[in-house]
Design a protein that fits this description.
There is one protein chain. Helix 3 runs parallel beside helix 14, helix 5 (116-138) packs parallel to helix 7 and helix 7 packs across helix 13 (319-343). 68% of the residues lie in helices and 4% in strands. Strands 1-2-3 form a 3-stranded antiparallel β-sheet, with helices on one face. The two termini are 25 Å apart. The protein has 393 residues and is mainly alpha-helical. The chain contains 15 helices and 3 strands.
């Protein structure tokens, strides 16, 4: 990475321009989504407001250097755990904790509803980055024993936030944490003799549960699974057999995207009603308005973002920053893959928004916080390129 001395030269203008493009797409898509009449509120001004707040978050995050995040990593992680804990401690009668779609995941504040798990994703990445960096500093010679110790530490750090999130319950966010963890385990250098069997076992176990949900429901009911959980799987595989209930959302999603055909119906030309088309199902709005061409351009924009972040990651010199950047890439990539996949029946439906495009303050601010770390590492790269992680102490 070429090193610049002037602040304006060290600022990542390319990444800023990419975010500006996402803001433009988001505003246009949300504006069009409201033509279905599900809500009477105009969400566009709020989304612009959240983008302005997000820009402020990036500016504040970029101000601090990577070594400062390294020193504060466990405090940041602890603050996130505290917020998740407060969701269960505070009584709902105080009107500070709000439920949405049955999940106790939100704080209801005067400025709006805030979902702590969206911020905990980035806090978790910072903590894992420090943990992995310190482990490699301590154990210079890698063995199966030291790799096993590292894996156990990573799982321990994952267990606490994952437990709170699954108790809410929020399966979609829980899957994001698992994706981040898997990515950092792979790049941490843990031997495939250890993680290979674990990943294979996970895939086999998941496939077995899926088959049992289809052919051995009675057995799973005895183990504590609920009937509605099976219906979600059935409605994913065969939505038209559940068109009146569980499968309706997927059917309308497929109809909206398919009706856009190649070029779409144009801005605000929507005819198919899709619930939450401005949030989790914003991709259906883009598909119906702009067709295959429009959705392909959006996917390409995400590829450009991920490519740019990957390029930055490969140019970073200190391990701590590298792990943070890799974790953020994994988080964004999984969000995009899961969100788009669920709208086209590639994956089951989960409550995961499309990064930088779906309406939502918590989601956007959480993503801006993560991107702010990328800006920070790029901006302060001159100061850290020759430092080892132990120099952060």
């Amino acid at each position: 990475m070429k090193i610049y001395n002037k602040p304006l030269e060290r600022f990542d203008w390319t990444l800023a321009f990419i975010l500006l493009l996402f803001c433009t797409v988001s505003v246009i898509a949300i504006s069009s989504a409201q033509t279905t009449g599900q809500y009477t509120i105009n969400f566009v001004p709020s989304q612009i407001q959240w983008y302005i707040v997000g820009a402020f978050i990036i500016a504040v995050t970029m101000y601090f250097e990577p070594e400062q995040y390294f020193k504060a990593a466990w405090w940041i992680y602890g603050a996130g755990i505290f917020l998740l804990l407060m969701l269960f401690i505070l009584p709902e009668s105080m009107d500070l904790v709000a439920r949405r779609n049955g999940a106790k995941s939100w704080f209801h504040l005067p400025i709006g509803s805030i979902q702590p798990a969206e911020f905990m994703k980035t806090f978790f990445i910072i903590a894992l980055a420090r943990l992995i960096t310190q482990h490699h500093e301590k154990y210079l010679v890698k063995t199966l024993k030291t790799d096993g110790m590292l894996l156990a530490k990573i799982c321990g750090v994952l267990l606490v936030p994952l437990l709170f999130i699954m108790l809410q319950p929020d399966l979609g966010t829980g899957l994001v944490f698992l994706a981040i963890t898997a990515a950092l385990i792979i790049i941490s250098g843990i031997s495939w003799k250890i993680i290979g069997p674990i990943f294979i076992g996970g895939f086999v176990g998941g496939g077995t549960l899926l088959l049992m949900a289809l052919y051995a429901q009675d057995f799973l009911l005895k183990l504590g699974f609920k009937k509605y959980q099976f219906e979600r799987i059935y409605s994913w595989i065969d939505p038209y057999s559940y068109a009146s209930n569980e499968g309706m959302h997927l059917i309308t999603s497929l109809n909206a995207i398919g009706s856009g055909e190649i070029f779409g119906k144009g801005y605000k030309g929507r005819e198919v009603y899709v619930a939450e088309s401005h949030t989790d199902f914003i991709f259906t709005t883009i598909g119906e308005d702009w067709g295959f061409i429009g959705t392909s351009l959006i996917i390409c924009l995400f590829f450009i973002l991920i490519y740019h972040l990957t390029k930055i990651t490969l140019e970073l010199k200190d391990p701590f920053s590298t792990y943070i950047s890799a974790g953020i890439i994994a988080m964004i990539t999984f969000h995009v893959f899961e969100n788009i996949g669920m709208t086209i029946q590639l994956l089951p439906i989960t409550g995961i928004p499309l990064p930088f495009i779906s309406y939502g303050g918590s989601s956007l601010m959480g993503n801006m916080l993560a991107i702010g770390l990328i800006f920070s590492m790029k901006f302060h790269h001159r100061n850290t390129m020759f430092r080892a992680s132990k120099d952060y102490e």
